[in-house]
Amino acid sequence: LTYVFSKVGFDYSNALKDIQIPITPIIYPVLSLTNVILGFILGMITSSLSSLFLLKRVKVVNPVEILRE
Known about the structure:
The chain has helices at 2-8, 33-60, 63-68; strands at 10-11, 26-27. The protein is mainly α. The chain has 2 domains: 1-30, no CATH class; 32-69. The chain has a two-stranded antiparallel ribbon. The longest helix is centred in the C-terminal third of the chain and has 28 residues, at 33-60. The radius of gyration is 22 Å and the shape is elongated. The chain starts with a helix and ends with a helix. The mean pLDDT is 85. This is ABC transporter permease. Keywords: Membrane, Transmembrane, Transmembrane helix. The chain crosses the membrane at residues 26-55. It comes from candidate division WOR-3 bacterium.
């Protein structure tokens, strides 16, 4: 998706029609290896932390009791 918008551009001129700031209405995102790697690492950290949080919560509660309810 980023690659497509880097070639075509993202037109948000309708959102800027009432704003008096001199800004270009079309942006072109840049796809770089650094952004891809950083996004992957942040995604892994976020999913790992949420998994650890849920694992800690499951250890406190007996799963059989949850299934009975």
